Amino acid sequence: MTFISTEGPPQLSPFLLDLYAARKSQRFIHHVLSSLPKMVLSDSAFYLDLARAPRPRLTAITWPSTSSIKRLIPIFARYVAHHPAFALWQHRPDQLRVLSWAQCATHDGPGSSTLHRHFYGPLGITDQLAVPLSVTSDRLSCICLHRRESTFSETEQAYLRLLHPHLTQAFHQSGLLRRLHSDRARLRKLVNALHHAVIAVLPDGHIAWATRPGWTLL
Asked: Which element (helix H / strand E) includes 192?
């Protein structure tokens, strides 16, 4: 068993505070990509969102955002089905955890895959830690950390596994808030279209919102 300090790196507390304060998905992604590679030292980090239906569509946000990485993203999208962690998460729900290449690669090794030859190899990436954020039948979201000249240690993997529940919880929280704001905006648009005076009052007597005809009565 690998033991790590309960104190952790000095930036852990600010990282978690900002993580749970990320009310929007874009802010969550920016915070994780800019901070996590400094806590678990990495040469690059990717946020990947793969929608499988109605047709495969990949959204990739990278740190750093270099021209060499941007140029190869279409190749990644073409061969993403060859990613060993993605296949394992999809077919083995019990493996929905942080995975290194050594834990999810085939017996031929990660370097034998088409994705590695056409994407990771040209970027010089030699090791990866893949962190699942959300995996459903039609969508997969994750964070991937990469190194070019060394592998991630057991201690670093253990540290990332301890952070994993916080990452997934904050990610789902930002998604729920995004859907809540979207639903509220649609409801207000619908109510305003009725041309009726509607006023929402909080328990303390303050007005939360009102339709345009409602404001004319105040």
From this structure: helix 154-192
